Predict the structure.
Amino acid sequence: MRILIAEDDFASRKVILKFLSVYGECDVTVDGMEAVDAFMMALEEDNPYDLICLDVMMPVMDGYQALKSIREIEKEHGIAEDDMAKIIMTTALNEEKNVKKAFELGCTVYCAKPIDMAKLRSTLEMLELI
């Protein structure tokens, strides 16, 4: 599995990376713009990401903007819905309006921080990624 982690907080990034690296090759970015750039490069290399973990509150471009851009790029490239990357939003913003906005923009799963690794593992299993 190919995984992209977009997280500006060092501690969160380290925990997510350590956990997910067991399941596949992980690339890490620290803001939404880098995440979109990495996503584009992966598509151009014909080696797209299977899973993307996006923090919501990041500098330069937030997770919502990155999510919207990634979904637009997938549509422009004619990627079928079943083949689109699975996107997990990772955030401390747990209010209903934030969750609703993420799903409206096309996220697959909304995961509240601090991240429960057992729940994350079961989510990966549910998505048939592991």
